[in-house]
Amino acid sequence: AVNRKFHPEDTIIEVAGRKIGAGYFNVMAGPCSVENEAQIVECAERVKAAGASFLRGGAFKPRTSPYSFQGLEAEGLKLLLEAKRQTGLPIVTEIMSEKHLDLFADVDIIQLGARNMQNFMLLKELGRSNKPILLKRGLSATMEEFLMAAEYIFAGGNTNVILCERGIRTFEKLIRNNLDISAVPLVKMFSHLPIIIDPSHAAGRRDMVQPLSRAAIAAGADGLIIEAHNDPAHALCDGAQSLDLNQFDTVMKDIKRRAEFE
Ligand code: PEP
Ligand code: MN
């Protein structure tokens, strides 16, 4: 069970030679979407050099409008694997349908996005797999709903779950979502699972990424997932919240001064 009552110690998720949780802090970084080989490889090289330990990048994108860029899909996964081959960075990428599980065989961490947090069939399928899952909190999910979504994955036998707080909907319009920093201590009280923070989707603006990363570290988060792009002004998705690669380097230096890395 995800409940700490049944498992008093913090869980450490081991993936691709990295540890996540119980004080092992990791930064996952990369563009919102994989766009082409040069883009994803440059992002991978630069976020790795800055100190990130995982490459993120969406291939299947859950977009509000059906007319927006939907991701490169299977081709995007291939490009991510190519970036992994060239840099050695393990990859994290979102799945949108259980029908695609075979395509994700070489993905290191499968992301279950906020919009699918209560896609119970998908949760059950991921529960039957043995892949580490990055489970993002739904746009207006309560903590109970969030932890019960993780419980679905556990119920199928897969206990490799990392939680991610990515902001919740509030009335505030200056930011895209509102980072619920309480999620970190609440998860730590009620569960043994690691929780990381996504300051990029929480704020929707790049100038908030550093302050929210500091807040995440102060609250005791186990890591961060940050959007960084080689050319944010021309990004096909989420450019306004993406750091450019120099800005990512600067933010990483600040994070490294504040968080305890392995
Ligand atoms: C993403 O990581 O690009 C994403 C779509 O995140 P979320 O599901 O948190 O909105
Ligand atoms: Mn995004």
Automatic annotation (TrEMBL):
KW Zinc (keyword) present: no
GO biological process, one term: aromatic amino acid family biosynthetic process
Record keywords, A-Z: Transferase
Record has Amino-acid biosynthesis as a keyword: no
Record GO terms (molecular function): 3-deoxy-7-phosphoheptulonate synthase activity; aldehyde-lyase activity
Stretches assigned to the DAHP synthetase I/KDSA domain: 17-253
Top enzyme category: transferase
Enzyme Commission number: 2.5.1.54
Protein name: 3-deoxy-7-phosphoheptulonate synthase
Source organism per UniProt: Agathobaculum butyriciproducens
Gene name linked to the record: aroF
Residue range from the parent sequence: 71 to 332 of 338
